[in-house]
Amino acid sequence: MFPRLELLLPLIFCLHSHLVALAWDPDPVQDFCIPNAKGGSNNARAQCKNSTEVTPDDFVFSGVKAPGNFSETGLSAKSVNPATFPGLNTLGMSFVRADLQVGGINAPHFHPRATEIAFVVQGKVYSGFVDSTNRVFAKVIEQGEVMVFPRGLVHFQMNVGESTATVFASFNSQNPGVQKIPSTIFGSGINDELLEKAFGLTLEQIGKMRRRFFPGRKG
Ligand SMILES: *[C@@H]1O[C@H](CO)[C@@H](O)[C@H](O)[C@H]1NC(C)=O
Ligand SMILES: *[C@@H]1O[C@H](CO)[C@@H](O)[C@H](O)[C@H]1NC(C)=O
Fold first, then answer.
1. Is 44's pLDDT higher than 60?
2. Is any atom of ligand 1 closer than 6 Å to the C-beta of 30?
3. Sequence-distant (≥ 6) Cβ neighbours of residue 214 within 8 angstroms
4. How far is the CA of 61 from the centre of ligand 1 (A)?
5. Residue identifier of the C-alpha nearest atom 5 of ligand 2
6. Which of 128, 146, 172, 181 is deepest in the core (most CB within 10 A)?
7. Where does oxalate bind (predicted)?
8. 50 CB less than 6 Å from ligand 1?
9. Superfamily for 7-174?
10. Would you kindly state where each structural domain of the chain is located, as residue ranges?
């Protein structure tokens, strides 16, 4: 005899809510947890520094005062996450400073684990995202304005002003993850024939894209 579906439903519902709950960063169980660089001394489970050793400097990060190096597309992005700023650990959020040269772009990409809210510190930035019906929501936003990019949706930015643009953004995950569409598709080693069929490109065109997004591999 198979169990009756009505009896299984509450179980299925519970499993489902459990999975949904896991889609967000877990709630911290202490005020803060600065990772223990020493690896926990005599207690292997002591992953956080003893709070008596924590100082105000553990909660301050000075690495976003200036832009970093600009990429080929005119973007400099400095990520502020627990790897660069351990004070963020377990707090469920992270940050990025992005600078765009005139005409520079932040190529279409998405963050699988976070919604992003971006504030334009200076400049004029064409910003937008695409929803799951392929509708584009895009607009030029200026100094002092914010735009939100819903979790998991492809979004992009381009500096359409006459000077460098600076954007500060925060994420509701300490590890939002990023997948850049061009390199995810052409820089990851997906089978050529599949890409040919998917995009209607010739092998030569695919080779060109590969050389651009996957320089380590002969196209
Ligand atoms: C933290 O350090 C203080 C002072 O050295 C000590 O008394 C306390 O037991 C430590 N706490 C833990 C959880 O190790
Ligand atoms: C920028 O590039 C220089 C020279 O290649 C390098 O020394 C420096 O570490 C880079 N800065 C950042 C923030 O990546």
1. no
2. no
3. 183, 186, 187, 188, 189
4. 26
5. 69
6. 128
7. 106, 111, 116
8. yes
9. Jelly Rolls (2.60.120.10)
10. 7-174, 183-213
